[in-house]
Design goal:
Helix content is about 50%, strand content about 15%. The N and C termini lie far apart (about 90 Å). It contains 15 helices and eleven strands. It is globular.
Amino acid sequence: MKRREFLKGATVGGAGAVVAAAAAFPAPAIAQTMPEIKWRLASSFPKSLDTIYGGAEVMAKYVSEATDGKFQIRVFAGGELVPALQVVDAVQAGTVEMGHTVSYYYVGKDPTFAFAAAVPFGLNARQQNAWMYEGGGMPLLREFFEGYNLINMPCGNTGVQMGGWFRKEVKTLADLQGLKFRIGGLAGRVISKLGVVPQQIAGADIYPSLEKGTIDAAEWVGPYDDEKLGFSKVAPFYYYPGWWEGGPNVDAFINKQQFETLPKHYQTILKMACDHANIAMQARYDVVNTQAMKRLIGAGTQIRPFSKEIMEASYKAAHELYDELAATNPKWKKIYEQWKPFRDDQVSWWRVAEFNYDAFMGAMFARK
């Protein structure tokens, strides 16, 4: 009887009464825990590079799908919201909630930034993931980035990169003297010990600098991206390997306060989406680089290895720099003292199986 009287009252009272009655009942729990959130992400990369720029889009897609569209992250290319090499600054300040970049772009703040991406003669992609996820790297980096109001999450990897495009051949250390080379991260400080003049230039600005002769050489990523950016048109010699980037990690950086305001399950979804993008980017590069290299060689690109003289001098210079930093920078020292033995153990193990397998397969391929 009371139920009929309630419904009758709601009908007599009209639509307002119905709304009021509905409001008396709590919303389903799932609706309460799925708030609508819209974030902006600033990338350091041009939109034309569906590989490295695309990593952020892959992550954002999975976040949206996992939350039924409630948590949306809009991705902006380098320069659209903030300059490509100022992404971390924007995230740190809260200008944007999130960024997608490579941490070694910011070694000017502190050389320790490089560990989240790549250190010359460091870890390959699998080893980098091993260190980050299971080898103690993530807690060390989280502690470091907390001082910059940042949360870091691996969100892509290119695999070992090429050594770059050169307008002239470089066969000896003498050929490096005074060479103006676009190169990012700590590698610039390493090769400056060998007489090179390093230049840090955003991806979209490399081609015109190389074309005009403002720089003599440039490295970016690998065959697929480099082909898209057109470097082969202005520099015929393509060197390998990119010893400064054995397995560079691309990070999602999140403003710490913004991250902490997310519901816990949104935090987990975001992490899982970044983990997926981390794997997906590497897989895509391993596919597209293969065909791009064939096209470049077919079009006349001349592939060259760095000489043993250059490689060994670079290795020596890199480790001299690391020791110098350890003596003057406590933050670098703390991570380096854990990272270096991990790297050495990894190389020791990989020499047994992985390296030998790869060397054998390479030798068999060379016989064809």
